[in-house]
Amino acid sequence: MRTGRRRLPVAGGTDWDLAAREAIAVLRLNAARHPRDPALAALLDAGGSAEFRRIWDAHEVDVGRSGRRRYRHPVAGEIELHSERFDSRDEPGQVLFTYSVVPGSASDAGLRRLTDADTAGRRT
């Protein structure tokens, strides 16, 4: 997939617009939490691409959420993962995401192919 002059990684998400909006919304949240962070300020002052600016200017703020994610992988093929977010009450700012597939689904088979390919590669 091409966006502007950059090529996205092969294993990147197929829901590019959703992933970009969510990532920039989390960036906006962190910018609000850390307004004096010089590295973050420098990143935002750099301007980024027109696509980044368009999404940034929408002013969406997000903490990352549970939901569905689709990925395309060269071995596993297209897989759909369900993500769940867990926030730590004891350690503010610490978050755990888990990912699962529907048992017996095409995504389950894709992850098994990926596991088999990894296992085969370790035996040689």
From TrEMBL:
Q: Which domain of life is it from?
A: Bacteria
MmyB-like transcription regulator ligand binding domain segment(s): 14-114
Q: Which Pfam families match?
A: MLTR_LBD (PF17765)
**Which Gene3D superfamilies does the entry link to?**
3.30.450.180
Q: What is this protein called?
A: MmyB-like transcription regulator ligand binding domain-containing protein
